[in-house]
């Protein structure tokens, strides 16, 4: 089995000019006392251009890897050799470093790419980035040991990289070297270098090896080095993370954790163009899955789709909680704890959960809890700014004084569990600490009902105090400043949280009323959901009267991969059987599934394809439109995309065989919205109406610029 590990660094900024950094860098060779494993290096090849601007040097480096004696014995080597090729371009002010292993190159493949370039916003600063991949094909049965050793050595060297440059900068300074002039062309073309601009003459962008563009520099930044200095260029934070920003806003991450964050973020930028979550939120999903990038990506994509489906991005601005909640929901934000985390106080014991569920239904309660969580995210961000350090979670203080059997009412507990489930899935790692005070005798019963639904990581953060224990040593004062302890807990601080109390029965609603309310809340979203099965696509019929209309669509692939098609037919398909379109089809959890194209119809005779098929992967958002050329019937079709058994080998893997046995793997889910616009209403130019993959909150005009896709800016009108 081959294992591939990838690493991508953040951007490290040195506040020194490129030429000085180069002088420091050169001092690492031929050996460097700060890297004991770097025993020696010999120059194998060297090339210098006539004008001295280009200098390429290839070295063979000898490393003494810190590995167990036994392993060295089995492998039969004492030293490992690497080849390192450095390409310095003094005119462009760039250094590109490519390195790969020569020893064991048929068993282990290590590739590394580093670059030193000029900072896009300040030409007296230098940026450093590095990316690497490790592919272990075989190693005498010690593959995982070798992987561990390699990763350990590599990450410790990443940490050292910065120290080494700083060490040699200091050495240069002690020798009185604090400035190294920039390269200028040889005397012959003197006039050019003495122009008023201190910046080098404009020259074409350099050709950078593919890996650099993909993993390191974006083309934009390569081109920036050759644009005129007067143009403001985009700084690092937009599409790149720099090391200082990570430390200040996200916290101390190990190199591999930084790499996971950068790679997941890059993947999101490529697949979810438009609105992607904030860095600290991406990080929460990584933390929740111990930085397993594939698992984190999966839960994050599910959450993004869920946010879109329920318009969660707009909940704080657009949703007003019903008066009953404002009066009887005994919870609210209250200052912050000793660590600077926002503090949420919930007087659960005083709250009539049964009454609230009967008066509001589960949906409105859930929605309220979501708005509280959204507010929590906002407060974390604010506190991060105020306290000057990363704060990514909040503290919750739950007072159980008054808890009784009424709280164990089954539907109430069920509602609570569902709320916990939704919050766990979409707000991972947001609870920093949960203080449970004045736990009464019935508490253990409630606890045994609820605790299995709570993630292990979260459960470790619970502190439970019975009776008045919270006032003693190790109690509340360890976590919350004396000045803000709420009055109802014997503190001096007036706490604005509503006192709760019984919800009057006159406010109760019948199950029917609530059900209608629920449906309204769930389908407040304009999306419909559909299931797509192997052999059973989902199809939607659109009748067009005016030849040049525009059909627009916007859909998310929630599960599985699908193929999207659009067909035209002159004759109407037979209406589908009634049952699949029952009154409850939209709200049924499975979503609807309808076939319109008759089995006897032939493509090309009875109907034709008007757009080429589009393969859409799980987690993708697609928007697009089609300008109709003829009247008649158009059919939008979402079809199951069958996957090859396994891309890498011809032999099916165990997982694939197991997956094919499970019927559920043949089900895909799509959420879609479609609309027809008369050509006269369509203000975009007809030519730009191509399908585009785009953001998932496309209902806010801000997310997709109109140039990117007319269809999405159109939907938002």
From TrEMBL:
Main location, first listed in the record: cytoplasm
Domain GOLD: 523-676
Keywords: Cytoplasm, Golgi apparatus, Immunity, Innate immunity, Phosphoprotein, Signal transduction inhibitor
CDD domains linked to this entry: SEC14
GO MF terms held by the record: RIG-I binding
Xref: InterPro entries: CRAL-TRIO_dom, CRAL-TRIO_dom_sf, CRAL/TRIO_N_dom, CRAL/TRIO_N_dom_sf, GOLD_dom, GOLD_dom_sf, PRELI/MSF1_dom, SEC14/CRAL-TRIO_domain
Gene3D superfamilies tied to this protein: CRAL-TRIO lipid binding domain, GOLD domain
CRAL-TRIO domain segment(s): 321-497
Region (Disordered): 190-239
Cellular component terms (Gene Ontology): cytosol; Golgi apparatus
Positions of the PRELI/MSF1 domain: 5-177
GO BP: any one term: negative regulation of RIG-I signaling pathway
Localisation: Cytoplasm; Golgi apparatus
Polar residues bias: start-end ranges: 221-233
Subunit text: Interacts with RIGI (via tandem CARD domain); the interaction is direct. Interacts (via GOLD domain) with SLC18A3; the interaction is direct. Interacts with SLC5A7 (via GOLD domain); the interaction is direct.
Protein purpose: May play a role in innate immunity by inhibiting the antiviral RIG-I signaling pathway. In this pathway, functions as a negative regulator of RIGI, the cytoplasmic sensor of viral nucleic acids. Prevents the interaction of RIGI with MAVS/IPS1, an important step in signal propagation. May also regulate the SLC18A3 and SLC5A7 cholinergic transporters.
Name of the protein: SEC14-like protein 1
Annotated organism of origin: Pycnonotus jocosus
């Amino acid at each position: 089995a081959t294992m591939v590990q990838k690493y991508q660094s953040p951007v490290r900024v040195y506040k020194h000019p490129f030429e000085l950094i180069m002088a420091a860098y050169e001092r690492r060779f031929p050996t460097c006392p700060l890297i004991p494993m770097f025993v020696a290096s010999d120059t194998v090849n060297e090339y210098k251009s006539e004008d001295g601007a280009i200098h390429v040097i290839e070295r063979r480096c000898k490393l003494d890897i810190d590995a167990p004696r036994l392993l060295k014995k089995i492998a039969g080597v004492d030293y490992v050799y690497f080849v390192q090729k450095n390409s310095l371009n003094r005119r462009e002010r760039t250094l590109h470093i490519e390195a790969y292993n020569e020893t064991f190159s048929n068993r282990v493949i290590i590739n590394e790419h580093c670059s030193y370039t000029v900072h896009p916003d300040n030409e007296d600063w230098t940026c450093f980035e590095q990316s690497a991949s490790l592919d272990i094909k075989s190693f005498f049965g010690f593959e995982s040991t070798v992987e561990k050793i390699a990763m350990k050595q590599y990450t410790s060297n990443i940490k050292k990289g910065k120290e080494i440059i700083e060490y040699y900068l200091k050495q240069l300074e002690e020798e009185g070297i604090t400035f190294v002039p920039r390269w200028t062309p040889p005397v012959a073309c003197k006039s050019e270098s003495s122009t008023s601009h201190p910046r080098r003459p404009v020259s074409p962008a350099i050709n950078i090896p593919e890996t650099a563009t993909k993993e390191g520099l974006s083309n934009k930044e390569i081109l920036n080095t050759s644009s005129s200095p007067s143009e403001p260029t985009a700084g690092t934070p937009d599409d790149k993370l720099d090391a200082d920003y990570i430390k200040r806003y996200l916290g101390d991450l190990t190199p591999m954790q930084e790499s996971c964050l950068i790679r997941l973020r890059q993947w999101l930028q490529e697949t979810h163009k438009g609105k992607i979550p904030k860095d600290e939120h991406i990080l929460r999903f990584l933390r929740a899955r111990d930085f397993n990038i594939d698992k984190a990506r999966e839960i994050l994509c599910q959450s993004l789709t869920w946010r879109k489906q329920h318009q969660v991005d707009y909940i704080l601005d657009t949703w007003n909680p019903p008066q009953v909640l404002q009066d009887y929901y005994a919870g609210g934000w209250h200052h912050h704890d000793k660590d600077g985390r926002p503090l949420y106080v919930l007087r659960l014991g005083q709250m009539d959960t049964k009454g609230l569920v009967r008066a509001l239904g589960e949906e409105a309660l859930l929605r309220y809890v979501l708005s509280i969580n959204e507010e929590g995210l906002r407060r974390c961000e604010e506190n991060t700014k105020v306290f000057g350090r990363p704060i990514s979670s909040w503290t919750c203080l739950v007072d159980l004084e008054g808890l009784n059997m009424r709280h164990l009412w089954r539907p109430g507990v069920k509602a609570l569990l569902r709320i916990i489930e939704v919050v766990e899935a979409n707000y991972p790692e947001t609870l920093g600490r949960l203080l449970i005070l004045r736990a009464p005798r019935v508490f253990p019963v409630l606890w045994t009902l609820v605790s299995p639904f709570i993630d292990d990581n979260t459960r470790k953060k619970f502190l439970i105090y019975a009776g008045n224990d919270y006032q003693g040593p190790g109690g509340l004062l360890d976590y919350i400043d004396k000045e803000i302890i709420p009055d109802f807990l014997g503190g001096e601080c007036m706490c604005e949280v509503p006192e709760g109390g019984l919800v009057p029965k006159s406010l109760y609603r019948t199950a029917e009323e609530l059900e209608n309310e629920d449906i309204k809340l769930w389908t407040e979203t304009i999306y419909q959901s559909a299931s797509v099965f192997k052999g059973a696509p989902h199809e939607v019929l659109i009748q067009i009267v005016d030849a040049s209309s525009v059909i627009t669509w916007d859909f998310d692939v929630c599960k599985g991969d699908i193929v999207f098609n659009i067909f035209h037919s002159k004759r109407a398909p037979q209406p589908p059987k009634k049952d699949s379109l029952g009154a409850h089809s939209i709200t049924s959890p499975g979503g609807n599934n309808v076939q319109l194209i008759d089995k006897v119809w032939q493509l090309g005779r009875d109907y034709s394809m008007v757009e080429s098929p589009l393969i859409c992967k799980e987690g993708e958002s697609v928007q697009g439109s089609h300008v109709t050329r003829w009247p008649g019937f158009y059919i939008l079709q979402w079809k199951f995309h069958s996957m090859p058994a396994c891309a890498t080998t011809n032999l099916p893997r165990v997982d694939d065989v197991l997956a094919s046995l499970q019927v559920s793997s043949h089900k895909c889910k799509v959420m879609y919205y479609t609309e027809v616009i008369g050509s006269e209403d369509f203000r975009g130019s007809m030519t730009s109406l191509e399908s585009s993959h785009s953001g998932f909150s496309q209902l806010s005009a801000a997310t997709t610029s109109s140039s990117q896709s007319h269809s999405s800016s159109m939907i938002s009108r």
